[in-house]
Batch of 4 targets.
Target 1
Amino acid sequence: MNTSSSPSHRASAAPSAGNWPMPDQRFDVTRAGQRALVIAGGGAAGNAWALGIIAGLADSGADVSRADLVIGTSSGSTVAAQITSGTRPSDLYASILAEQPPARATALRRGPASGVSGQSYLDWSNAVIASAADASDMRRRMGAAALERDESDGAEGIRWRDVVARRLPRAEWPDQRVLITSVDARTGEPVVFDRSSGVDLVDAVAASTSAMNPYPIGEGRYLNGSYRRSENADLAAGYGRVLILVPFGGRTRVPLEWGMDLSAQVSDLEGGGSLVETVYPDATTRDLFDANALDPATRLQAARGGYAQGRSLAGQLVGFWG
């Protein structure tokens, strides 16, 4: 069931590439009692909203940061690394409230591509999507287009790694199971990083959050995890309870027949026996999730709205989450 406010229960060398789903993520009865948290991408606003939701839930008795599996995509990969770092959700939320709010900007630097704005990114990616025949073709075309526009000779990747490293409370993979999604820009193949991939956590998050320029890891080049699949909730297959935080409300820019949309992922999870809850932004933050979602000036409103929403949902989610 998709909901924004009242969910109800429903019956650095050669990184390893994940399949779809990963072989060890197929249904396993030993995971039937385990919990998975899926955090989708949503730019600067999405990161703040998700952290607010998680902090609000934790402060109200439903600490979802202790999930058996945490899956992060794009800005959600930053959240996944932050909440599994040992830092309390309330402290992560407080750090957003303490940020100096920047003025709204027309040209934003949210990934390894100088002067990338939300609208320029949408225009660029929409053109690639429109030219593609299917999901695999789209990923190949996204990779080719990103490689073609990359003229930084690695400098943007170094800059972006520094930005990502400053956002993470710790640079090491946690003991908790965390999956970070990406796409191989040269082949278009989906990639899923975890602590056994031979890739630093910072590099995994930097790859998953890259937008229009490929992020270098060794000899490889990697792109945003949302190109694999919008939320990548399919990686939670076999887990008994799956909570999905969806900043963009489950909207998709690709044809439904490609099977990348959230509803298809939820249907597959439920068909495999998982109980699934989805949480969307409510009316206090919903209008942030458009082309302006990349703007850091949205973070304070998104975090506060997410926190209030998390507190209001906690009573209902405690029973689901356990």
Note: The chain has nine helices and nine strands.
Target 2
Amino acid sequence: MQLGMVGLGRMGANMSLRLLRGGHDVAVYDRSPVAAQALAKEGATPADSLADLVAALATPRHVWIMVPSGAPVNETIEALTPLLAKGDAIIDGGNSNYHDTVARGETLATNGIYYLDAGTSGGIWGLENGYCLMIGGEREIFERARPIFDTLAPPGGYEYMGPSGAGHYVKMVHNGIEYGLLQAYAEGFELLDASAYEFDLQRIAALWGKGSVVRSWLLELAERALANDPELAAIKGFVEDSGEGRWTVQEAIDRDVPATVLTYALFARFRSRQSESFGAKLIAALRQEFGGHQVKKE
């Protein structure tokens, strides 16, 4: 099947390569020509512009965009819309806010262009292991694009979630859960590290991966990270968030769902970015004021 891929970062490039290996005809475009040329060596058709990308595809076209959420998605869709024809489809595989997805789908429909939202999980390991895909939009177009999903996902690794926005909604909640899981592992291993015992954390991670109720792929990755750097000395404890955790918490607030773990995990990421917390200083000052407790001076 033919597909155009826009955005050749860590995910887009590997997804394109997996599709090429699966026998698909893939045209690729990125703002960096170097990225497109690298995939040309693997059999992709490089495009110098979005117009060239669209011209390389037969109708009905399928264009997968793998760019950062927000303005980059809007700009890409706005640039593609006049180039596409009625019956063509755009597939958004990034982590877009589902509210934005619904609005984009409605706008594209006025031009006769279909819009699928494909929440994509798998990270840099997806090239070899496959990607988990959570897909929303028109069922008819989902069925039309099945050969793409069959190649990108492992067996049983993709599902139709419902109408426009449903795929990105499920991916949003998926990432919110991920925040909570990461925070639970982080706190547990920090407690082990702080104990009076000389634990080998890498060995514990390996042990828990063998039949334990807390075994998971994340635990396997923890074992790998600890094997490479047992003290994690080369890593600064600064944790970014790319938006999905915030959207999950906001959705929980809007729907009166007590998502306490997910909310705390998001706030813990904010705390990781503070070299010194003013709030913690205030607590120390107040303890000194009401109880005469000692404070540590700068």
Note: The longest helix spans residues 166-194.
Target 3
Amino acid sequence: MVPWHHDNHGTLHTAENHMTIATDIKIGLALGSGSSRGWSHIGIIKALTARGLEPQVICGASVGAMIGASYLSGKLDTLESWVRASTKMDVLRFFEIKPTNSGLVNVTRFHKFLTDYVAPERLNIEDLKIPFAAVSTDLETGREMWFSQGNLVDAIRASMAMPGLFPPVRYDSRWLVDGGLVDPVPVGVCRALGANLVIAVNLNDNIVGKHLRKPPAPVISPDPQTKGMLANIRQTAREYSNTIFPSTANEDEAPGLFYAIANSINIFQDRITRSRLAGDPADILLTPRLSHIGMLDFHRAAEAIKEGEAVVERMYPDIERTLSHWP
């Protein structure tokens, strides 16, 4: 694919066909929520920037906020290396052995993950190279909250605080939860921060009803030599695999609690996404084909990243056409 470049007359061309593009285009990238499907954002960002399409504004909800922040803080390659190498066991280690009243995720462990792979602990949003916002939800009023300044890691935690998994985040006398509850693909936020052309990523396309047939859980072979901590980890993996990941093919068996919650989240995110995008459509909409990846299939990062790159490849003629005809 051909790179974009500027000439001395203030216009933008491609090396292949020399189409003229107005330089007053300010591209905003709206990265949607979608749990483990969010790893595709990594492939999308890499594919867009490889073609010279550097966003001038980035906004994200939930996992979209995390990936956008990682890119802007210069840690995206580090994050990609970790997620590509991660396994289901690595995902399970983020969960408490005994769930608390606030959520299943070990907050201390997750915070360390964010500071290691997403953003330095003391980095503020206003110190980033371009405008950025993370969307969260006020738990009491249901209103959108936009983090466009302040501590970046705190903003990510508030944007990703999915009820049941993460505890709500306290900020300025409010309790905040996942931004995907109210604005799964924050197109309007990008425009409010100055973007006049928005590329949006919808991770919730065609996801409803895709995971009702549950494949059998992988078998963990017993090891008579394994004792102590390793044995406890394996036992925890068995217990959490049954709770968090699909574990039975019996269609007459009632879904487990978390499985029912996960599919309910898919339903309302699909409906909210459709409604929000109908009222505030993006100029370019990318919809990766990710319906086969479940809510917590974080160990399938390579598939999601590859599809992120592929959706940009498929949509690139439309992206070129939109840019070349921009008023």
Note: Residues 1-21, 211-227, 229-245 have pLDDT under 50 and may be disordered.
Target 4
Amino acid sequence: MSPAAIKVPPKSTSKISDAAILAYMRQKGEKARAAARHVARADTGQKNAALFALADILKAEARTILQANAQDMLAGRAAKLDAAMLDRLQLNEDRIAAMADGVIQIANLSDPVGEMTDLKLRPSGIQVGKMRVPLGVVGIIYESRPNVTADAAALCLKSGNAAILRGGSEAVHSNLAIARCIERALSDSRLPPETVQVLDITDRRTVGFMVGMPEFVDVVIPRGGKSLVAAVSESAKVPVIKHLDGICHVFIDRDADREKAIPIAVNAKTQRYGTCNTMETLLVDQPVADKVLPELGRIYSEHGVELRGCERTRRILPDARPATEDDWRTEYLAPILSIRVVDGVDDAIAHIAKYGSKHTDSIVTENLSRARKFLREVDSSSVMVNASTRFADGYEYGLGAEIGISTDKFHARGPVGLEGLTSQKWVVLGDGHVR
């Protein structure tokens, strides 16, 4: 069943039996495994040709994609999806152009597959090193964001992997419109169209079957709400690359440049509310709190941001609501911000260690020793100095796009790009050597 053949709306899949969905998923898995062997052998030129074709098709089909997205937005509003989810769901001409640009950027990146590193000559005469190889079949489960369909397809293709993509029912029309573009690009480049398969059944049972098929799926990447990621992690029989939430902090140090601190603190919160790299807690060093918080309070008010502060914050910003213990642990994904006045960099680091999610944290300071201390001691996948947390993104990091963000410490950490979608195997070069 191709993406173009979708006829069943998500709500009607409840009539499909478990056995039928299992058979459907196994069929997808078998096709993905066969395609993975093919794309792993594809050379860089063939993969890049498919990516450049995809970028052109996305731009050419922008109107069709927007029409499909309008259907999803209409249904989303009718279903009373919250503002953050609607923001992630919505496409426009600029977002489609960015999607195509991301595909081109991935095409222009070095191909990691087959790269050999760390070759060393051993006393026995053999050479030992490592080679980068594809993971195989990557299962990706995501909600709302239709751009993930193109990003995931491009990253998996360039890294020599096959992909099974399961988007949310709220974005089904958008995802399938993009899927048709991907299928065309693959076929035009003589690669198996099954290299990237977008599920045309959005029933939640597909997730359970996908994460329970280690014979077909090598790794799963869930992108969505904390409950989705937690459920996938708990039930998966295959490795999971994930982050549960994004409780990101900006710490304004006593030696911060006020001309840098104000724009960074505003941008980190207000540039977009519904993203995992948006600041949720602002930490301000006590000696400068009364110098920066009044102006920040005024600007946040202009943006309609609700403030929740500690006792010392509320002495300066009396209109702020009292912050509770839960506020420090909450990823709002909304125009709400927690603010705490702290006693120096050690206090800020301790707060982040207790309440943070190991996603992204930033310090604003002109003090080099404190900047280095923050970089060294904050245990997050991205740690920044004098920059907005909104830069924690695969595109901004030069990865072309990202398949997700990992806050785990094994294999991949932070935005996961091409290298994160490969593994390494040992290679030994000899010339008739025996032991």
Note: The chain has a mean pLDDT of 92.
